[in-house]
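Key result, reporting period 2: structure in, sequence out.
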């Protein structure tokens, strides 16, 4: 019996949380489905990783979301490939992929929403309301994202399902020497490490973090802040850090070895102004690192406040500063938080659980379509 054919539609496969998680999920879905990825902008840096895993990547570029020739080309491709399920991600692929899938007569259409305030304009909200009847389900990555979608788009609640992000639980190499990892970064064995892992864009709140860290550095003289990630705000943030006179901030850019960096980290901070359900939170919990995050999106759903870390009001400099210092100085409490985080991610947010939930949804919708 032939496996159902699934096409995931994205803009491109850059190195980000959504894309890395997509790779992990599709590797496992291959057992039950024929899977492929369609990019409607360009391939992206992560595309070779998908192909190495036996997941085809096709580019069908769109000049605009509703470009008729691009829609026709995508619909023709979906029809030729006899796709059974189209599953789209993020606003622009959600629009173009939904339209092309229905033109092609694809039996099941699903759109994924990854963030609160998913839309840039009122026109985009209106577009999602128009397209909603053409989608069999909306997947939200957290209850917070689901509530936001229901509030904005006015849809039947039963049509919006939460499937939480999952994460692979990493295994540290048995021969890993944390002092060497620190030394290679110019960090002494006795220095504490605070890490922020996020794209360098305004949404992630790095400017706010640097302002808070100015006080932390003044009080705690044996600490280093690692800014891990890249993006359009990097130049500005480096200049801002310099203007604040910060001495112990390292901008590392993108890293292919987050597990190794987490192994030397004492506290992970996520000062986001907007969030859906952060993969960084799950990765940090899987490495048993305590967390300090802002109360946006699904952050509080991942972290039981005081259980595996602290959730603090977004933009509250005083509480953020005090919470960093507490986690750095209260080693026993921090280690206990880290252990609870590891247990929680194993129980609630494994990649296998995410895959199981996805398979159940796919099977249910295929049965409804037949």
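The corresponding designed sequence is given below.
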């Amino acid at each position: 019996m032939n496996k159902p054919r699934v096409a995931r539609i994205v803009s491109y496969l850059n190195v980000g949380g959504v894309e890395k998680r997509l790779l992990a999920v599709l590797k496992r879905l291959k057992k039950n489905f024929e899977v492929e990825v369609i990019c409607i902008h360009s391939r992206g840096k992560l595309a070779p990783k998908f192909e190495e895993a036996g997941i085809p990547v096709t580019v069908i570029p769109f000049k605009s979301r509703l470009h008729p020739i691009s829609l026709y080309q995508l619909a023709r491709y979906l029809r030729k490939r006899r796709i059974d399920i189209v599953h789209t991600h993020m606003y622009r692929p959600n629009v173009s992929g939904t339209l092309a899938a229905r033109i092609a007569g694809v039996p099941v259409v699903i759109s994924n929403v990854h963030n609160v305030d998913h839309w840039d304009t009122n026109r985009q909200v209106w577009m999602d309301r128009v397209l909603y009847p053409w989608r069999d389900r909306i997947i939200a990555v957290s209850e917070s994202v689901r509530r936001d979608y229901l509030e904005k788009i006015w849809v039947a609640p039963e049509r919006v399902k939460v499937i939480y992000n999952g994460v692979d639980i990493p295994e540290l190499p048995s021969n890993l020497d944390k002092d060497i990892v620190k030394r290679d970064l110019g960090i002494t064995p006795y220095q504490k490490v605070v890490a922020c892992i996020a794209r360098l864009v305004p949404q992630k709140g790095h400017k706010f973090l640097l302002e808070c860290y100015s006080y932390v550095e003044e009080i705690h003289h044996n600490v280093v802040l690692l800014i891990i990630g890249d993006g359009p705000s990097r130049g500005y943030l480096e200049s801002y850090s310099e203007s604040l006179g910060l001495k112990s901030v390292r901008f590392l850019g993108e890293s292919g070895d987050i597990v190794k960096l987490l192994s030397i980290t004492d506290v992970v901070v996520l000062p986001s102004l907007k969030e859906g359900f952060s993969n960084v939170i799950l990765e940090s919990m899987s490495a048993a690192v305590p967390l300090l995050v802002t109360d946006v999106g699904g952050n509080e759903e991942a972290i039981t406040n005081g259980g595996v870390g602290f959730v603090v009001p977004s933009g509250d400099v005083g509480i953020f500063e005090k919470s960093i210092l507490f986690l750095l100085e209260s080693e026993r409490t921090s280690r206990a938080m880290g252990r609870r985080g590891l247990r929680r991610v194993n129980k609630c947010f494994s990649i296998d659980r995410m895959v199981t939930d996805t398979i159940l949804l796919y099977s249910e919708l295929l049965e409804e379509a037949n």
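DSSP finds 15 helices and 13 strands in the chain. The first strand starts at residue 5 and ends at 10. This case is discussed further under Risks and Mitigation.
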